Amino acid sequence: MGAGVPSGLQNQYKGLVASWVGSIPTYSRHFLSQQEGVQMDKKNELLRQIPKIDEVLKDQRLFMFFEDTSRSIIVESVREVIEDVRQRILNNRIDSLFYDDIIDSIVARINSKKQKSLRQVINCTGTIIHTNLGRAILSKEACKSAVEVASNYSTLEYNLKRGSRGSRHEHVDKLITKITGVEAAMVVNNNAAAVFLCLSALAKDKDVIVSRGELVEIGGSFRIPEIMELSGARLVEVGTTNKTNIEDYRRAIIEGQTGLLLKVHTSNFKIVGFTKETTLNELVDLGREASIPVIYDIGSGLMTDLSDWPIHEPTVIDSLKAGIDIILFSGDKLLGGPQAGIIAGKKKYVDMMKEHPLARVVRVDKMTLAALEATFYEYIDPEKAKRNIPVLSMISVSEEELKDRAYRLMEILNRKTDAYELKVVKTQAQIGGGSAPNQFLPSYGVSLKGTKLTIEQIERRLREHRIPVIVRIYNNQILLDMRTLLEDLFEDLVEALLTIANETGRNSYA
Ligand SMILES: *Cc1c(COP(=O)(O)O)cnc(C)c1O
Prior knowledge:
Elements lengths: L6 H7 L15 H21 L3 H5 L2 H9 L2 H20 L8 H16 L7 E2 L3 E3 L10 H11 L7 E2 L4 E2 L4 H11 L3 E5 L2 H13 L3 E5 L12 H8 L2 E5 L7 H7 L5 E7 L15 H11 L3 E6 L16 H6 L4 E5 L10 E5 L1 H9 L2 H4 L4 H13 L3 H7 L1 H7 L2 H18 L3 E13 L2 E16 L4 H9 L5 E2 L1 E3 L2 E5 L8 H13 L8
Parallel strand pairs: 1-14, 2-12, 6-7, 6-8, 8-9, 9-10
Antiparallel strand pairs: 3-4, 5-11, 10-11, 12-13, 13-16, 15-16
Helix pairs in contact: 5-6, 7-16, 8-16, 9-10, 17-18, 19-21
This protein binds pyridoxal-5'-phosphate (PLP).
């Protein structure tokens, strides 16, 4: 079954399952050497059977790839698989060779090389704003706007009324002011950039007063004290980890030296027990009294009232009503839009940020602006926003609906395969993305165990599927949470689970 085996002959090997041998057993010396002799003959025979690259390239099953795949990817895949096979033979890991399996492995290798690295997955984790899985997914309208602007010339910096140069800031900034009632707004690359720009433009070489309980780290390398240092502002910590009073802030103010009062929402953790946090109103009053701007890094950017659900996060509108001078928040957390940082508040301060040289460094591209404009547009009608923005619809979907979805999935699978033991279970979904820590949304899911495969094998195969499926393992079961499963991907999830259920135990050299 080496190179050029007539196709009739190949069929003869089909259905045969190659067996794999482990390392050579070490019995007696005599036995070993005899075994070694046999192994050497066998090895040489197998090595002779390895097909030649040129021959493999002529295989019909690779023809279709030449239409849309670069030749170098195909040749590289053939070379790699054949080299793998050779190594396996040399390491005694194969004791028979099947031409068809080699071709299948090459096809799999080509397909995997053609895969983009950044691609879609099915989120069955139950974490809505999953930081590792791309945080918020965009509304249909936001996607449409981004695609339209990306694939066409646009009004990015062109004013249609005047027929002359316009500003990229105008598009979204006006809409934000309209919806939130602020004087001015600005969009930057992300909320970390918003905090950095704000500190750089308003407090360089000045004191910024922050409560010790709010010196947070938001994932990896974003720490308030470090950002502060980079910006050239001086951090003045007040109060203690669990308690900060307004008097602590007042005592720390030095006329001519204090630049900002900064409040940071402790979005990804909760301090409970003997605690005191200064209210926004107290801070605003103090800021007015001392003529010092008050900045609030709210993090999540919740724009709607979610009090019907067990989610307790400050809203943008309530914070602005308290009289905050500048609010900063993310575009891709509870706002449900693209990655962005939104700066909103008093025009005097927003203008200082717009004019700062860093503004250019942290500016956003047209696709982000288009998606963000479309996202904010949904908020003109809050009910529409809850329906159309996936983050919000995933929060507000009824438990009944999730339960139905779970039963539907279980019943389809039960009808078509006996490879799984399935159960509909109650689960706890989460907002995630560093929002609403320790707050759970009651949800439904399907828990699953394999009758032939282990939990780990199923989990890995789901991850390796055409559209990878990301799941949680809980209590030695795979948990498929229905809250984060998009209806459009329901069939794909079923297909993934059935494909895995029907997999044969054929050899793979990929
Ligand atoms: C998430 C978060 C940030 C960082 O926002 P990015 O948009 O991820 O840069 C900053 N501050 C707070 C309070 C946050 O919750």
